[in-house]
Design goal:
363 residues
Length: 363
């Protein structure tokens, strides 16, 4: 697979300059690029490494002096990182699974399989499941009874899709993702210590030893169109209603989304985010790595939470937050600045006390 510089630029809506008939077979970072690679010199600090490799062509930023960088050809993209989306799609070699249904796959005779579907080895498709046209399903995938997968989905190795899960079109599920596990819902016959602490914020009362009884999960999971779920992420089914993920939302590796959670459209949940049960998250929200969100909360549209933030109360739309507990990011940064000064303040107070004490003695 190779493309000319001009073909790539045309596909990306970018400009091609120099030897535009040069053919490119792969992408590389500047220092690692060979003669048939397109180097990704999208910023001046990246371009500085071009001399360490053998690249003859590169994608560069608007205004770059590509000839001074020693290149024979260049693709000039006004927004290089956005152009990377189309460029990497062109160069993606895929999973090399082939086509058709592998003979070792186990497919219930009541399942409905659309045209041009690939199903890999040792995959199991349950009763009455529906798989849309053009889906590519890898090896050792489990698809439960009555599950529905929209057209042109990519279901990677070892994914687990439980019974009655609904998945939209063009969804990507990465290896090991698990959709539709039971929610973590348990209750005690008598009032529990946790319930008491919620009321008192400290005293457990006389709950004593207690046993936990399971609340069954009767709902399922609903994923909109163009959703992506990262490797080993888990999305639990709802207790009665479905857990719902809106169109184009992206869920990173090792994210945990609990029962009854509703997440809007175009939202990003980065690695190790945890969202507790029955919380609602709006549209265009960004939760950075290791953000934790408590149960039964509301996070408004366009909220951005910095890494490690712990959300313990409702967050209004448009807020930028950080810290534990979450607060406005600028306030949190100011607080840290003040904390760094505490040592000096303590020393100053001690010196003042000493001076006052000596002054009192001299009187």
């Amino acid at each position: 697979m190779s493309y000319s510089i001009q073909e790539i630029a045309t596909a990306l809506g970018a400009s091609a300059v120099g030897a535009t008939d040069m053919r490119i077979s792969a992408l590389a970072e500047p220092a690692d690029a060979g003669r048939e690679h397109l180097a990704l010199a999208t910023r001046p600090d990246y371009a500085a490494a071009l001399s360490q490799g053998e690249a003859r062509a590169a994608m560069v930023w608007d205004g770059a002096d590509w000839q001074a960088l020693g290149l024979e050809a260049a693709i000039i993209a006004p927004r290089p990182r956005y152009a990377m989306s189309g460029l990497t799609a062109m160069m993606d070699l895929g999973e090399a699974w082939g086509n058709g249904i592998h003979p070792s796959a186990i497919i219930d005779n009541t399942a409905q399989i659309g045209p041009d579907v690939h199903i890999g080895p040792l995959t199991v498709v349950g009763a009455r499941a529906q798989i849309g046209a053009g889906c590519r399903i890898g090896p050792q995938v489990t698809i439960g009874a009555d599950a529905l997968i929209g057209e042109n989905g990519l279901i990677r190795e070892g994914v687990r899709i439980a019974a009655r899960v609904r998945i939209g079109a063009r969804v990507i599920l990465n290896p090991g993702a698990a959709l539709g596990g039971d929610g973590f819902s348990f209750v005690t016959p008598e009032k529990s210590g946790v319930e008491a602490v919620r009321e008192t914020l400290g005293d457990q009362g006389d709950a004593g030893a207690q046993r936990y009884v399971r609340i069954h999960s009767l709902g399922s999971v609903w994923l909109g169109d163009d959703v992506e779920v990262g490797a080993n992420a888990a999305i639990d089914r709802g207790t009665v209603r479905d857990t719902r993920i809106g169109d184009r939302t992206k869920v990173d590796t090792l994210v945990m989304i609990a029962h009854n959670v509703v997440i809007g459209t175009d939202t990003l949940l980065c690695g190790l985010v945890g969202v507790a049960g029955s919380t609602r998250i709006g549209n265009n929200v960004v939760l950075a790595g290791q953000v934790g969100v408590g149960d039964n909360l509301f996070v408004g549209d366009n909220v951005i939470a910095g890494g490690g933030t712990k959300i313990l109360s409702n967050i209004p739309s448009g807020r930028v937050i950080l810290g534990y507990p979450a607060m406005k990011m600028d306030s949190h940064i100011d607080m840290y600045k003040h904390m760094r000064r505490l040592g000096r303040m303590v020393a100053d107070v001690a010196a003042l006390k000493k001076a006052v004490f000596k002054s009192g003695q001299s009187d």
